[in-house]
Write a structure and sequence with these properties.
- The complex is a heterodimer of chains A (104) and B (174).
- Chain A has 104 residues and is mainly α.
- Chain A has two domains: 16-50, no CATH class; 52-104.
- Helix content of chain A is 67%, strand content 0%.
- Chain A is built from four helices and no strands.
- Chain B is mostly helical and 174 residues long.
- Chain B has two domains: 4-51; 55-173, Four Helix Bundle (Hemerythrin (Met), subunit A) (Up-down Bundle), CATH 1.20.120.
- Chain B is 83% helix and 0% strand.
- Chains A and B meet through helix 2, helix 3 and helix 4 of A and helix 1, helix 2, helix 3, helix 4 and helix 5 of B.
Chain lengths: 104, 174
């Protein structure tokens, strides 16, 4: 009986199957646990939902492009207003002899 | 062709803390590029206009919505006025330098100083008359609404009653 059992156990082969998202789910569980820690506000909140690298890149490009063009719009509007006023002053200088001295 | 399994491994090998740092750096990099690209494109036309020698005439055309024929006529009038304006500049400079010199050399109002004061006043009056005449000439070429706006702007920018008599001297010494 024991020999038979030993033989059976010897012939038993375990074939473990690791799920494809095993590592990611481990990180998710770690980050969920870290939510209770003080540094959760700094890092933990950013790990939910867990972005994959392509998602992270896409998000960074989208956010950066939006913020950059937004600031660019504000800044270029101010620069254009300033340049428009400069041109106005140039015209006034060109017809006003008193201001004319400043360009000659 | 990329291998999806490799990409997944890279993705998973980056710790969440580093992901945040990488994302912030990525946002900053993309944001900086987007900012300068937008700024460069959006301000290009006006920067070019400011750098162009006759950019102020292009400003006049756009600001007062001039047609091609109006613009052509105004450019001609402006070109005719430039030598007049230069001559007035010379006269203002001479009259004010003379007045400045006499004020410094005298301790009382001499007949010569009195004459120089009158001369400076005449030059100033003459210049204002010429400038005003030119402004009216230009406004006459514009559509009525734009002409009104042009006159209002020129009144506030050019025809100023509080203009100091030594403006020219100060301008040359500044």
């Amino acid at each position: 009986m024991d020999d038979e059992l030993k033989k059976e156990l010897a012939s038993w082969k375990v074939q473990p199957q690791i799920p494809p998202d095993f590592q990611r789910s481990v990180w998710t569980r770690i980050s969920l646990r870290e939510l209770g820690s003080p540094k959760a506000w700094l890092f933990g909140i950013w790990t939910i939902p867990q972005f994959s690298l392509p998602q992270l890149v896409a998000f960074a490009i989208l956010l950066g492009a939006l913020a950059g063009t937004g600031l660019g719009f504000v800044e270029s509007s101010q620069a254009n207003t300033k340049n428009w006023k400069t041109l106005e002053s140039k015209y006034v200088q060109s017809i006003n002899p008193y201001e004319h001295f400043r360009i000659y | 062709m990329s291998n999806p399994s490799i990409r997944t491994n890279i993705s998973e090998s980056i710790k969440p803390e580093f992901r945040l740092i990488l994302m912030v750096l990525g946002v900053l990099a993309v944001g900086t590029i987007a900012f300068y690209a937008y700024h460069f494109i959006a301000t290009r036309e006006l920067r070019k206009m400011v750098a162009t020698p006759n950019g102020e005439m292009e400003w006049l055309r756009q600001e007062f919505h001039l047609s091609d024929s109006q613009f052509k006529r105004i450019v001609e009038l402006h070109a005719d006025y430039v030598p007049v304006c230069n001559e007035m500049c010379r006269r203002i400079s001479e009259a004010n330098e003379k007045l400045d010199r006499l004020i410094s050399n005298n301790k009382e109002v001499t007949p010569e100083l009195q004459s120089a004061i009158q001369e400076a006043g005449v030059v100033q009056e003459d210049c204002r008359r010429h400038t005003l005449a030119h402004i009216y000439q230009i406004s006459a070429q514009m559509d009525p609404v734009e002409a009104e706006r042009y006159l209002r702007l020129m009144k506030s920018r050019v025809i100023r009653s509080d203009l100091a008599s030594d403006t020219a001297v100060r301008a040359t010494t500044e």
